[in-house]
Inverse folding.
C-alpha cells in the first residue's frame, strides 16, 4: 500500500518538516555528486554496529556522531524520495501538535532510538546503516496515537490492478507496522538490505515520546445565549 495523502490539513506551516525534507534531499544530491567517493562517505558517516560498540569502549565521539549523521544519508533516489514522501504526508500534523522546536527534537530522538534498536539486534554487523526511515517511523508512531480518526488516501494493488482507497489511518499504520515486524522477524542476518528493526524501534519510540512532546489542544469555549 502506498499513501497519497491524509485528510487532516495543517493548521500551521510545517517549516521544520519541510526543512528536514529539503535537507535530506540536498545531502543526497551531495552524495550523488561524490561519485566513487560516496561509498567512503557512507562508511564514514553511516552507523556501523561493530564500529559503534568499538567506539563506546575506545572513542565515544566516533560512536556518537554516526548515530546522528546516518539518519540524513540515503542509499539511492528511491530510498530518499520514498522516505521523504512519507515524511511529507504524516510529519506536518505531528509538527502541529508538538510545536516546531519540539517536533525537531522529537524527530531526532526517534531517529536515535531507531538506530540503537538496529544495533541491538545486529551488534556484529559491519554494514553501515543509513536513512531517515527510522526517524520517520517514529513520526508514524506519534501520528498513530495523535490522529486515530484520520484517513489516508492510499494506492492499493488488487491483483494486477491499482485501486485508490480511503483507509483509516489506524488500519494503514497497523498494517505498516505488522509488515515491518514480520520482515524483521524473518531477517536472520545483517548482510545489508532494509533495517527492519530500526523501523520497529522507531515506531515504538515515537509512540512513547509523543506523550512528552505533544501539546494540549486548546479547549473550545462554548457560547451561551
Amino acid at each position: 500500500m502506498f499513501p497519497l495523502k491524509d485528510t487532516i490539513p495543517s493548521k500551521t506551516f510545517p517549516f521544520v518538516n519541510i526543512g528536514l525534507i529539503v535537507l535530506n534531499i540536498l545531502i543526497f544530491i551531495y552524495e550523488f555528486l561524490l561519485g566513487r567517493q560516496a561509498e567512503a562517505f557512507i562508511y564514514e558517516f553511516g552507523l556501523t554496529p561493530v564500529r559503534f560498540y568499538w567506539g563506546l569502549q575506545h572513542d565515544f565521539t566516533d560512536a556518537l556522531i554516526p548515530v546522528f549523521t546516518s539518519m540524513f544519508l540515503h542509499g539511492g533516489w528511491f530510498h530518499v524520495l520514498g522516505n521523504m514522501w512519507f515524511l511529507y504526508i504524516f510529519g506536518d500534523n505531528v509538527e502541529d501538535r508538538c510545536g516546531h522546536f519540539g517536533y525537531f527534537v522529537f524527530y531526532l530522538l526517534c531517529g536515535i532510538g531507531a538506530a540503537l534498536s538496529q544495533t541491538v539486534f545486529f551488534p556484529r554487523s559491519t554494514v553501515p546503516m543509513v536513512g531517515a526511515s527510522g526517524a520517520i517511523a517514529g513520526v508514524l508512531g506519534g501520528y498513530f496515537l495523535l490522529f486515530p480518526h484520520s484517513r489516508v488516501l492510499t494506492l492499493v494493488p488488487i491483483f494486477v490492478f491499482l485501486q485508490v482507497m480511503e483507509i483509516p489511518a489506524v488500519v494503514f499504520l497497523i498494517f505498516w507496522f505488522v509488515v515491518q515486524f514480520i520482515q524483521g522477524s524473518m531477517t536472520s542476518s545483517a548482510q545489508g538490505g532494509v533495517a527492519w528493526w530500526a523501523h520497529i524501534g522507531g515506531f515504538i519510540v515515537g509512540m512513547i515520546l509523543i506523550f512528552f512532546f505533544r501539546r494540549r489542544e486548546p479547549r473550545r469555549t462554548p457560547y451561551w445565549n
The first strand starts at residue 2 and ends at 6. The chain is about 65% helix and 10% strand. The two ends are 49 Å apart (CA to CA). Residues 13-187+194-213 form a domain with the Rhomboid-like fold fold (CATH 1.20.1540.10).
